[in-house]
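Hey, resending since the last one bounced:
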Amino acid sequence: MKSKTSMDAVRELSQAIAGAVDPAQVYELVLDVVAKFLGVDKASIMTFDPERGVLRVAAARGMDTEIIRKAVVRVGEGISGRVFASHEPLLINDIQAEETGPGRERYRTRSLISAPVTCFPMKVGDEPLGVINVTDRADGKAFTKDDLRLLTILTNQAAAYLHIVRLSEERASTEQLRQQLEIARQIQYKLLPQEPPAIEGLDVAGRLVTAERVGGDYYDCFLTEARRPSFVVADVSGHSIGAALIMAAFRSAIRAQRDADYSPAILSQRINSILYEDLFQAEQFISMVYLQYLRARQLIQFTTAGHPAPIVWRCADKRFDDVGTGDSLLGIEPRGVFHERQMVVSKGDVILLYTDGVIEAAARGSSDRFGRERLLECLGDAVVGSARQIVDVVVETVQAFVDPDKPRDDITALAIKVV
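The structure tokens again:
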């Protein structure tokens, strides 16, 4: 008969909780079945509050609402606290003999004498979710080990379902986050130049590949009012959503200053001044290379604020130059001073701006870095092509070098070819 009762209870609970959509529903349904098959007037489920380290009533039958609201049990204290801490069910024959603290008068004397309080842990793996307390049996009889066994079976069944519900909630949350990140990624890519501006005497192309769905790299190219083509490649520390937000602010700041036709050094100082407070508060930094092309004088002038120096391929001499200004990152000092360098360029020369995600890319299965020498080697083979072909060779060579399942940083390259 007991076996049949157990099977009936399990079947009824299974059918009931199959339609539950959240833990609160599961708690109520468990108590419905427990009250029916154990014939009790009073039962409660207490769940663990990890922030405060206490147990609180999540659902109850036959309890005063004020008691439900105020009931708080510390782990290890009282019957519920002891059961939660030990992870073991407990059968008490005489509640009056237990050192349970205040509140024993709330139980009916006969029931508490002949019907113990039954508690059990709701487990998922080794982590209990809470405890269920059952008392005041309607017929006044004492609880038995069979009653405890049935309660434990029902609890394990409910705990397994609760685990599934929580996994479903986490999956839904993850999917929602994935969709939000995809939207953020699309917005971020739309902030990049869709097509480089047509610039007389130059062939220009850029490419960015983020390590995550959103990243902290950025590149841009535009004409100032003085018709000086300007180019920027920047990298915010990290490649999270926070880095992407900082980079969006950087883009707004630099585009707001472009028509003033500042030199690279002055522009860097102004951008640093504008963004310093936000960078300081966010505990982030930006590295940047800002380069201008002066066609009439056939030269480039640039500032490297904590960023890798431009690599310049000298077509006539078949050699590379890469000299930066050695200035500090944006966000280090509120009144940072920046410098600039100038280089004469000729037809066939190639200037590559890139982020450190290129040279610091790690090989799959090892700590070996892509490095400057590999970059120069692949550039040496690519410089004969167009700017688009050059950035594609660089980016795809780096991607082939790294572990695609564990990208460590964004990869950005901007090629400028004098034609």
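DSSP finds eleven helices and 16 strands in the chain.

Sorry for the duplicate.
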